[in-house]
Amino acid sequence: xxRRSPTQPADQAEAAxxxxxxxxxxxxxxxxxxxxxxxxxxxxxSQGHRTAEELAGEVQAEAPDIHLSTVYRNLDELxxxxxxxxxxxxxxxxxxxxxxxxxxxxxxxxxxxxxxVPDSMFDGLAKQARARFGFTIDPHHFAMLGRxxxxx
Length: 152
Known about the structure:
Layout: H1 18-27, H2 34-46, E1 50-51, H3 52-62, H4 68-80, E2 84-87, E3 95-98, E4 104-108, E5 114-117, H5 123-133, E6 144-146
Parallel strand pairs: 4-6
Antiparallel strand pairs: 1-3, 2-3, 4-5
Helix pairs in contact: 2-3, 3-4
């Protein structure tokens, strides 16, 4: 199963470093602005799931004049370029993380525990969805909700 988002271009290379990400932006005609550089630095430094508001807080700690709307616009553009992906973990806000570490998610409805799972967990479902319905799933966008071993 591909790690690429359905909206990511087929020829899109993954950005393994901050400089790779900046080069992707340049290759696709984007500008490497200070706000984009600071945002990418925050994403590469955290290596985890972060909301736009959390990322904006980090960006604004370094550059207070960068607005939340600028962070959202940059995240949208970076997702279009295949540098980041966003996921929904239930009722909270979307979270963002680097596309080079794309994976699926299980979230416990009882305690809220988040478990990152490899893409291969969804291979069977993806094959069945494609074969039976002609449907391509994106297991990264939404989390699978259920109950963890501690809450079962």
